[in-house]
Predict the structure of Lipopolysaccharide heptosyltransferase family protein.
Amino acid sequence: MTSFSAQRPPRILVVRNDKLGDFMLAWPALAALKAATPAPHVSVLVPDYTAPLARCCPWVDEVILDPGDSGDRGHQQELLVQLKSAGFDALLTLFSTPRVGWLGWRAGIPLRLAPATKWAQLFYNRRVPQRRSRSAKPEYVYNLELAEALLASLDLERPPRPAPPYWPLSGAERTAQRAAIAATLGLEAERPWLFLHAGSGGSAVNLTSAAYARLACDVDARLRARGKAPAWVLTAGPGEESHAEALAATLRKAGLAAHRLPPSPGLEAFAHSLAAADLFIAGSTGPLHIAACLNRPTAGFYPSRRSATPLRWQTCNSEDRRLAFCPPGDAHEADMTAIDLNDAAARIARQLQPSPTSEPHL
């Protein structure tokens, strides 16, 4: 084993090259790696889509683009040459695929660690049994356990587990985001700001727009009764803009102060804007997990099937800032209509009870 020091830190390549939410749930593991002694140089292999947020991550030193399974042979070869020349000491694959395992082996990375699942594990010389299919733990905890196993294999001093926020923006940045949105939309700073993301990104079972409208109207009425009339800010992913605008129009027709978040120039700007939320409501999508990394209060709506439970895809914000709702045990696992929206509205309203907008942005 190489003897590492501050002058010769270990070079680690971390792979999480699938969806946005999955990548955000890797941030606790990245924070744990970066907190080790000596602090390693951490590179991430990510697709072009999540690269803007990878570049924002305070626990990442270098971002390497993955052309993906469909990338042409030339780009695949360029990636292999880049990895060979980088001199990585270790590869940590948080979600194992045969292509990535073979890539790490061909790149000659001496320590290659991944979950002990699927035949792709044959390319790794360190394997950690996790049985993720049982969904017994949150995804970000599974990722943390892999990071800790890697640190042990490298004989690095393992730090205490990091705590939220995993994306620690400054108070000045949060204030600036709130001021910019207030100026653009004419929002009053003293109101609670509830961000609502009704889209699913095509991957998550979610409430319908009509259900979100009922939920918002109920939450709004409960907060108004307490003298805290909220402002609703509707967000959208690519291709979901018209649905968000339609929902905003429905809420305005019902008497709610509803606004569409203006289009952002890119994913990084959109992500930063979520710091302005007093609470973020969504299905188990990428934006929900961005808000959680920022340690914003969240309310997530999930199916109850084993692979997508609220526990497995739990947000990584502080425990007292996360709410989760799913169909009851006697309903079909994906029957989102079985969720008790009255109970959800009551719990969301209570979440905002202790402190509205002027937290000073927890």
